[in-house]
Amino acid sequence: MENQAVQQMPGFEAKKPLLKRIPKWLIASLVVVVAFALVYSFNDTVKTGTRDAFVKVKNTTTAAFSPAAGSEKDLYKAREAFAAGNVDGAIAAYKEVLARHPGSTDAMGELGNVYFMTGRSGEAAQSYFNAASKSLDENRPEVAQALLPAIGQGNPALAQELQQKLMQSKEAQNATPEKRS
To answer: Is 152 exposed, middle or buried (0-12, 13-18, 19+ CB in 10 A)?
Structure first.
């Protein structure tokens, strides 16, 4: 009864609930701002994770590939193109190196790095797979093992194939001492 009496008094307006007093556009704007803030913070996390993954792959491939496997001068041209931001030029230069030096694990691995950095994970996986396979042929299974996670990220089927090659390589190494005994 009291509420009805207060509401009926001239010059008195009952207060609306808080959500009804705030304009709808303001609420919508706040929702959009919060959404963008969440997306932005998530993107930083993704960028950091990707950057960390690239650094790990780069360190692995740089340490693993032998400098004698290919023309340093040709590789320098490809590296310079990539450093200058010319991704297409770098890819073309690495392909030229591989045409002249088909067994260059340096060129295979570095081409994989270029593909990986530019988001072309399938092509990166193929290039890393080629380098890993060549490394197995050169009796360097540690290189192939180090590249396995990056290959799996871009092409799980190639990773499985490499895993089988690694097991065959290990079996062959284990069988060799038995034949000598």
So the answer is: middle
